[in-house]
Design a protein that fits this description.
This protein has helices spanning 2-17, 34-44, 47-65, 71-95, 97-100, 110-113, 118-139, 142-163, 170-174, 176-190, 195-218, 220-226, 231-234, 237-255, 266-291, 301-321. The chain is mostly helical.
Length: 326
């Protein structure tokens, strides 16, 4: 496992050092206060993203246990998940530090400001990746460790290094890394992967593009400036909105499969139907505005982005509560 992480580090070093110098705002500021440095290292782990990942992991553990899972196991899984996702986030910031410096949305990231050096970031990312794998292996189970390492490698290599700068489908297939915490949560309790976890994996898979594309529509000038072919950069708003609607319908349909297969009851079904209906209303409203040629602030694309976070939070809360009502 250590060799895997070190090999990955070597790949990242080679790839980034081959790029033109002078793309960062500042790499070695003279004054780096300890408190600010701590905050910078925390920022490398992308804590807001991790919050969302844990929101999908813990409820699945309740569903797998058909009640309250072992609380130590929940804590161990959350800590391992934070370390794993944090390592992947740090690798992502290391590799993308050249384009982060040129995008308004990412211009204050730690490597761009120089609060953390590239070498420090690389060592930190490798340590978190190795540490999380060992943590899962000995404190949860080997299956969860393998899934965790797979998620980290997929996000770092497949999404960040291969897909992101080459294809408009980057977020579609790269989003698989964000789906794996669902399988990790289930495997932590059951030491296996079942159809219930696969269905929830697919919910997150089809949720990711219509969650992220509205944000990409908002900041598409950033992506265009650095040559990242996010779908809103390459296609017009009408095309993007149509794709959002298609993925949204599939996502809602998949979310309703749990009940007929016997994994959930009436409570989850009510929440899934209600939240799904509100999601589809927002998605179709965005498509209507795009078809009408509305652009700028009046497009209101961020409404769907913000609702998407609420949707997944409510849906997975229902996943956790439902076992107690059956």
């Amino acid at each position: 496992m250590c060799l895997l992480a070190l090999s990955l580090s070597g790949v990242c070093v080679t790839a980034v050092e081959s790029r033109p110098a002078g793309v960062l705002a500042a790499e070695s500021p003279k004054h780096r206060p300890f408190g600010a440095r701590v905050k910078a290292f925390v920022a490398l782990t992308k804590p807001r993203v991790i919050e969302l990942l844990l929101m999908t992991t813990v409820p699945v553990m309740f569903l797998a246990a058909e009640g309250v899972p072992d609380l130590w196991l929940v804590l161990a899984t959350c800590v391992g998940g934070y370390l794993s996702a944090g390592g992947a986030g740090a690798f992502n910031m290391y590799y993308d530090r050249d384009i982060d410096a040129m995008m308004d949305r990412t211009s204050q990231r730690p490597l761009v400001t120089g609060m953390v050096s590239p070498r420090e970031c690389l060592v930190f990312a490798a340590a978190l990746t190795v540490g999380s794998t060992v943590w899962f292996w000995f404190l949860v189970n080997p299956l969860s460790a393998v899934l965790s390492l797979g998620a980290s490698l997929f996000y770092t290599v497949v999404y960040t290094m291969i897909l992101k700068r080459r294809t408009t489908q980057n977020i579609v297939w790269g989003g698989i890394a964000g789906c794996l915490p669902v399988l990790i949560g289930w495997s932590a309790v059951k030491n296996e992967v079942s159809w219930a976890s696969v269905i929830l994996f697919l919910v997150i898979f089809f949720w990711t593009p219509p969650h992220y594309w509205p944000l990409s529509m908002k900041v598409k000038d950033d992506y265009e400036r650095v040559g990242v072919p996010m779908l809103p950069v390459v296609a017009g708003n009408k095309v993007v909105a149509r794709q959002i609607v298609l993925y949204s319908w599939v996502m809602v349909a998949v979310s309703l499969l749990l009940t007929p297969l016997g994994y959930t009851g009436w409570f989850y079904t009510v929440v899934a139907v209600a939240c799904g209906a509100l999601w589809l209303k927002e998605a179709h409203a965005l498509q209507a505005r795009a078809k009408a040629g509305i652009t700028g602030a009046k497009l209101k694309e961020m409404r769907l982005f913000h609702w998407s976070i609420t949707y997944v939070s409510l849906l997975f809360t229902a996943v956790a509560i439902d076992p107690f009502l059956r």
